[in-house]
Structure formats: structure tokens, C-alpha cells
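Quick one:
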Amino acid sequence: MKKVLIIGKGLDIVKTFYYVFKNNQVTNISFRSVWNNPEQLEYFDIIVLSGFHFEICRYSKKDLINYTKKYNKLIQNIKKKCKTLYLVSTDLSVKRSISKVVFFYYTLLVNLDEKEKIRILSFHTINGHEEKIIKKLKNIILHILNIKTMNFKMMASKIEESNKIELNTIKFYFLNISRTRGMDRYIRLIFDLFLFKLFRLN
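Output:
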């Protein structure tokens, strides 16, 4: 039985990795807690890192780049606390994007120190958990728009492929426009995953 730590409180992520590592000793802690004090961590066999500060969606492009540098340092500190580190990233299989979150993860992975020692998990929107009406409606909309999703039970196979990620070159637009996390999510849905693909730009 391995000691596993999930960093981040996103419900779908937490439920998914509790399922994947269900035969192990799994612990969960908030991302902000680790950001503020990474030295608090004990040593684990596996750490899954998920999360970022939502306020980055209000940052300028320059501030976003500075944030990725700080995040990179956080990763290096966490890496010392485990045998295997999984970094959860948003899906980056696009050629064009307006999303600040996509820019954050893309810039982070391009410049990540010792990336060969970190296993990257990049995947489509997770579904398959017991869902409330709003989430069911969201999944119906994603299906209508022909936007890919992934059942959470497929994560185990994703973990096996996590050292095989290849990054596309992504062209970004309008990154200096401030927005909320919710706005960034819908902008990405409408432009990156629907309109750009509709006009064969992604």
C-alpha cells in the first residue's frame, strides 16, 4: 500500500484520484495551503498536484509569466517530497487559444525544470461521477457542441501514458484582457473548443 497525496480541492479531480488510488492510503490537502508552506509536506510515494490561483485570470501576460516561474519553484519543492510527482494540466491539444489558464499551463510546461522527472496528466473534461442537474446540463451542451470529454475511470490508463505528452505550439490572443475564472472557462469553451474547431483553426 502506497502513501498518496492529492494537492487541490477540485471535486472531480479529488473523486477521480481517490478512485484511481483506492487501494492505497490517500490524503487530500488544499493547493493554497501547500503554496503558502510547501515545507509542511511529509514524504509520500505519490503526489498529485492540481490547482492554481483563480486570480491569475485577472493578470497581465507579464504577470502570468512571473506566476509560472513561482509555480515552477513550487513544483521543484514538492518533487523533493515524493518518489513520483504527477502534475495535472488542462488539455493543451489546440493550436490557438484565448484562455489565460491554457497559457499558464502551456508556459509552465514549456519552461518546466527537470520535466523528465515529472509526469504530466493532460486530459479533456472529466465526466462520469454522480452529477447534479447543472453538471448534467453542462455535459449535454458539451455533447451537442461535439467537445471531447473523458470518463473518470479512464484516468488509470492516462497515468500510464503520463510520460508521453507532446506539446503543440499554441498561438494566443487577448491575454491582457482581465476576466474572472468563470469567464475564462466559457471563453475557452466557445472559442478554443468550438468556434476555432468549427472553422478548422484548431
